[in-house]
Amino acid sequence: MQNILRNYYQKGSMLKNNLIKILVFLLFVITNTVNAQETAEHHNSEEKDIKVEIKEYINHHLLDSYDFSLYSYTNDEGEHKYVGFPLPVILIDGGLKVFSSSKFHHGETVAEVDGNYYTVFHNKIYKTDAEGTITLDDHHHPTNVKPLDFSITKNVAVIFLVGLLMFFMFSRMAKSYQKNNLMPLGFGRMLEPIIMYIRDDIAIPNIGKKHYKKYMSYLLTVFFFVWIINLLGLTPLGVNVTNNIAVTFALALITYLLTTFTANKNYWKHIFWMPGVPGPMKVILAPIELLGTIIKPFSLMIRLYANITAGHIVLMSIIGLMFIFKSWIGSPLSFGLAFALALLELLVSALQAYIFTMLSALYFGMAVEEHDDHH
Amino acid sequence: MDKLIEQFSLGLFFWQLILFVGLVLLLKKFAWGPILKSVGEREEGIKDALDEAENARKEMQNLNADNARILKEARAERDLLLKEAREMKDGIIADAKNEAQAQANKVIEQAQATILAEKNAAISDLKNQVAELSISIAEKVIQGELADKNKQEKLVQDLLKEVTIS
User: Which residues pair with A72 in a beta bridge?
Assistant: First the structure.
């Protein structure tokens, strides 16, 4: 199974390379035709607007938001209409303030709560005066007060929904074992091999038969959580949780804390006083090793974040190309490309979950490794 | 990097941490624990069943080996019995032969003894008859000799001479 995945990964990267080649080629061909058209029809300012709009849309998509909007449109009167629902905003600013995000009207108005005024600027809530003025410093950072923000944003709502989904899915599966003579029923039959795979091919080889049990709950939860979240990111719901660094940071932090607090004497000995190397080297190695313990989970955080973000940006850019080309050749081609890339992203979503779980298991394995000082 | 730090959402981080730790603990109690336990039990059950089957197979093998051994033993016993019977038969025949031989020898001996006795009897009878015959011949001869007086005298003289000498 591991080999298969590795093969897929290699194939995936090959496919990615090929895709990039195709993409470059297509861009070359199509921009030429577009340029030819442009020179023929003179420059069309509307086209520029679409490009800017797409770029803004992608940037907007990558950010969190205070309401759950599925899509927005501009009606005949030139009004922006959003289809979706508001979510609760929770602020700590001289006491707990809870209100609905509908008060912001999608960032277009100032919300007034208990005599305080708040407004949304670049997807962050700032305290303002009644007019909602934002004062910017030289680096274009707002100087307004930022209240502590524990709002149930779109991402928070999604992780809670995924948590609920996982709880019902797996507790039902657990119950089905009791009903059916220790065999899972229904969808559990598909999930069980994955659980077995995580146990037999990720946890046991990396952590060892003696210690793997205490990490199983975390490994299983993190695998399914990341996988489901990644898959949701590919739906047209506009969910993008794992391409938010706060989420991957939280996950990596738990891996780091688990590694640190379950580590045995041997692990610390190898960090602070590496056996088998000369005295001065031990002094040099200690800070490097100590830094290494932080870099490992840090790489986990960046890897997951960057992979999913890159996937979203590329996929959305190619989808955006369809609207830019508006031609009989370009749009179907970029549709085909987007389709192929979406399939690849489907693989990447599972692969990233696998890699996160696998590397977490590897770090746990290092923490509980027991060996004689022979090197 | 700057942008990343700027965009970092403390609220999302907080909720993610709370939710995830809670989810791990809840799932551990209600899902992963029971699932892994059930799977472990099932695997244990399968292993036990396989072991049992293996044991049964071994037992069967042992039983077969036993059967073969018993059969072999029975065959050996039968062979032994047959051999004994044959030996006994041979013994009986040999004994009978010997006895018959002895009996025959005895009969022959008796016959020989009877024949010898008869022969002796016949010989003695013959001797008697020869003696009687000889006596009667001698009588007649003597009667003939003694008819003449001179002769008788001479005889007596001869006999007397013999007596005086001696």
Answer: A82
DSSP secondary structure code for residue A373 in this structure: S
Amino acid code (one letter) for A321:
L
Distance CA A141, CA B62 (A): 87
Tokens standing for residue A19: 């895709």
In this prediction, residues A50-76 reach a mean pLDDT of: 76
Whether A361 and A219 have beta carbons less than 8 Å apart is answered as: yes
Task: Note the pLDDT tens digit of each residue in B107-128.
Answer: 999 999 999 999 999 999 999 9
For residue A49, pLDDT over 80 is answered with: no
Q: Which residues of B touch A252 (CB under 8 A)?
A: none
Helix (H) or strand (E) holding A146: none
CB atoms within 10 A of CB B28: 18
Q: Which of A159, A160, A182 sits opposite B42 (nearest CB)?
A: A182
Strand boundaries in chain A, DSSP class E: 67-74, 80-86, 88-92, 96-100, 111-113, 116-121, 124-128, 148-149
Question: What gap in Å lies between CA B119 and CA B109, rounded to an integer?
Answer: 15
Give ipTM to 2 decimals. Answer: 0.77
Contact residues for B158 (Cβ-Cβ < 8 A; gap 6+)? none
Residue B18 in contact with partner chain A when CB distance is under 8 A: no
Question: What mean pLDDT comes out for the span A296-317?
Answer: 89
* Residue matched to tokens 């979240």: A229
Q: Where are the domains of chain B?
A: 2-165
- As to burial, measured by CB atoms within 10 angstroms (0-12 exposed, 13-18 middle, 19+ buried), residue A119 is buried
Contact A80, A74 (CB under 8 A): yes
Query: Is B12 part of the contact surface with chain A (CB cutoff 8 Å)?
Result: yes
> Are the C-beta atoms of A87 and A66 separated by less than 8 Å?
yes
Residue with tokens 């960090």, as numbered in its chain: A271
Strand (E) or helix (H) holding A375:
none
Interface test with A, best of B14, B15, B25 (most A CBs within 10 A): B15
Look at the block and give the residue holding tokens 């979510």: A87
